[in-house]
Amino acid sequence: MIWCLLLWCVCCRGISSQKVFWEIKDLAITSGGNVTLFCNTTSVPGRKVTWMKKSDVIVHHGLVFYRSKFAEVSGTNILQTPTTTSERDGYFYNVSVSIVIPYQLELCDGYLDVKCSLNNQTIPVGNKRALPVCNVFWEIKDLAITSGGNVTLFCNTTSVPGRKVTWMKKSDVIVHHGLVFYRSKFAEVSVSEGSFLTIMNANESDFGVSYTCIADIFSFDSMLDLDVLNVSVLPNDNDVHMSWNLESRKLLQIYFSGIFPIPHCQIFHKGTNILQTPTTTSERDGYFYNVSVSIVIPYQLELCDGYLDVKCSLNNQTIPVGNKRALPVCNDSTETNDHTVLLIVLGILVLVLLHCVLSRIIECEIRTLINIASTLRTNPKQEMSSLNKSERMETITFLAQTP
Known about the structure:
Blueprint: E1 2-6, E2 21-25, E3 36-40, E4 49-53, E5 56-60, E6 63-64, E7 83-89, E8 92-98, E9 111-112, E10 116-118, E11 121-123, E12 129-130, E13 137-141, E14 145-146, E15 151-156, E16 165-169, E17 172-176, E18 179-180, E19 186-191, E20 194-199, E21 210-215, E22 218-223, E23 233-234, E24 240-244, E25 250-259, E26 264-269, E27 272-275, E28 279-285, E29 288-296, E30 307-314, E31 317-319, E32 325-326, H1 333-378, H2 380-384, H3 389-401
Parallel strand pairs: 1-4, 14-23
Antiparallel strand pairs: 2-3, 4-5, 5-6, 7-8, 9-12, 10-11, 13-15, 15-20, 16-17, 16-21, 17-18, 19-20, 21-22, 24-25, 25-29, 26-27, 26-30, 28-29, 30-31, 30-32
């Protein structure tokens, strides 16, 4: 990677020991006119050029960021002195030209174009040859993202091994070959496969902007957007509020602040989901959502015993939303009914037994009286003398009613 800067040359900081320099062309300069600078990279052929003004990238590998202010033209001869052998054939020559690229030169993307000339006259030597595509890219690591937490990007440079990485946010260089320019916001770790960029305390200003990773002459830029299919932004613990009301049909209200995408919540009682579709309202807050979830139980549903357990998820990832809530003990109507039936049965049994006992007593009394009556008929004076007055009266009444 070659960096040519206005008023500052990165090469002088030890990136390369070879001579790379820029100079002013087309003197003299006219106030209000155009100024042309030329970056000479003949000592490192094949390298694309990035131009910077202070710490702001204005041209990167042919891409001009401020077209109303700057223009760039490039074309690189990757080998100044190819190997040439020749033999005389009469008045002419038979010539062999061998082009061997240096070991440090990695070629991919674009075309190779060969130009030969005789006394400044171009000789046609065939078509351009396309090069394979360079595969340098970055991706998000360590999902899900937490609002206010860290976001980690990984620049994969396995197709160009051994190359140090430069990171850019929009057109601003934030990391260059391990040097971090904004240490309070970014951190970088280099590995053999590429580079990890950590965005600390990620907020709204860090999303919806382009990030570029550069390795040697290859680069990849993409927007850091929140994608509902593969990115989840979890709220902090302080951004989740729960309000229980077991006395009301509006059983529970959950409020999420700074979440993405909209969560899906369920409430369970004894392992059963008692409400499939809670009421959810949301409002967009920049790239995030503020979401309110209301759980209202049906009128016919009576909840008691055990616990209520709330589960919310983002892209199949569970969100912690608090502890379970214990329910009051049920007055079991089935058990009460069983007791009532048992009491009725016992009452009936008592009545039957009482009836049997009374029948036995009455039967015994009747038999006694019958025996007395039978005896009185044969010897009335003997038996009556042993009875008291009331017994005599009962006996006389019984005898009068008995045929």
